[in-house]
Amino acid sequence: MPILFNSLLAQIVLKPEKVILLRHQDKRAVRGRTPYELWRDDPPAFESYQSIQSFENRPKFTRAPNWASFVATPDGSTMFVGLYAAKYIGVLAEDTKKPHTDGFDLAGSCDIYELKPDERLSDLRGKIFIDWGDGTRAWVQRADNQNKPILELRPEFKEPDFPGFLNFNQPLSKVEGLPKTWIENLKYAKGVYLLTCPKTKEQYVGSASGEEGFWHRWMEYATTGHGGNIALKSREFSDYQVSILEVAGSASNLDDILKMESRWKGKLQSREMGLNRN
Questions:
Q1: Residue 73 sits in which domain range?
Q2: Domain end (from 153, 182, 210)
Q3: Pair 147, 169 in one domain
Q4: Considering the domain boundaries, does residue 274 fall inside one?
Q5: Is 11 part of any domain?
Q6: How many domains, in total, are found in the chain?
Q7: Which tens digit of pLDDT belongs to each residue from 107-160?
Q8: Does the predicted model carry a pTM greater than 0.85?
């Protein structure tokens, strides 16, 4: 029989009717600033993100004085990130920078809430994963109507282990928000990589030989859409899938890496049938 989230509320003598459940997953978020990444990397920014809400949701948010907050992880799981005492303050009084995307929430355009972390479940932050159910679009729900099954209780918050260079395969849009241990590995390594367009299935072979290795090179693509490459400049923006074909040895110089790159272009025929032009 599954353990249910409301059983945790019972242990701290908090009635479910006094709690609403929030699952944060924001498609408007820019690279590196999803609700999950804000919670992981900048908790004050995450709390600012939570505290500003649209007028239309006021009846839901003022229904109960406590918020149990969850975020969608990169793999789509629903992770508990904290319990908050919530108080409606009123209409936003001044322009406020958005933590998750560019621009500002304008004064008078939305509501603001005062949120105080409730330490009674603080030891479970980042450790509990629940089954939110099929209604993922209903991101605000009542705890008394939705007693969520707990799928997993971890001993500590821990992000997935780095899969290894040859198993690495991610969209460019997710590179900036990768776990920090993954980023450190990618900064350390140099070599040959592959970009694959999800729309046309065309491939581009490139090399990373500069400072901060694969990571820096891929961030150039994520920022510009083309990384300075002629064939990619002429195309509309695409969220390329990026993978690693070969990692250069620690003694490899620039000439060695360029030879590796040329060899892979020949193997994959990316000049004849792909996006390489040299």
A1: 5-153
A2: 153
A3: no
A4: no
A5: yes
A6: 2
A7: 999 999 999 999 999 999 999 999 998 766 689 999 999 999 999 999 988 888
A8: no
